[in-house]
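hey can u check if this looks right to u? its 245 residues, i copy pasted from the old doc so theres a chance i mangled smth
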Amino acid sequence: MLNFVLCDDNLNILNKLGSMLESLFIKHNYNATIALKTSNADEVLQYVNSYPVNVLFLDIHLESNISGLDLAKIIRKTNKSIYIIFSTCHLEYTLLAYKVKTFDYIPKPFTIEKLEETLLRLYSDMKELPKEYLTLNSKSIIDQNDIQYLKKEGTKLIVYTNNSRYETYSSFNKIQECLPENFVRCHKSYIANINNIKDIQANNNTIKFETHECYIGPKYKNNFMEVFNNYGNFTNNLEYSNNTK
């Protein structure tokens, strides 16, 4: 269980942040809880010194006897491991915030997309990211369920999802070892997610997804079709063009 502490002097923002985080905990099945939600800097300091806290969301510009930045400096003197994530609409404080080993900085107003991106990186950094997520680099963490296929293009690895395309430099064989059994090599340059296949046109060796398509190579065709046909639960919504000649 990860314990989150939230501190912001604007109660509306504080409550909104809490609700957004709780919705993301549920969405991603994170074993986490908001242990404290407050606008009082002294209360944060007392809580952090008394109880285990993993993540602190902290407003930089607190209207109190101590700023969020100064509070972070005090906490850092005794706690080097807590993840500090700053939030503010005062952009001039950004560089100062990173001097206290800040994990991330989120500008106000919050968006659920930015918050989700930060949480995914956070859990990846903690090595507690659920297995259904694929980490390409420090900034690209992808839900495997959204992946249609992966493509090798020279030294680059390109991942196509329902709505996006990601590029990184990684070994094709190495990345396949990180993927579950529904990802099957179908070509020397492609790995397909069987779960997301909408149609297989066997006459021209084409695999169609919702928004993209890739191909079946002669060397991989027999094995791919054997795996595909043996996993009937993957083919419920498939429009299969059964012309294998």
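Residues 6 and 37 are 5 Å apart (CA to CA).
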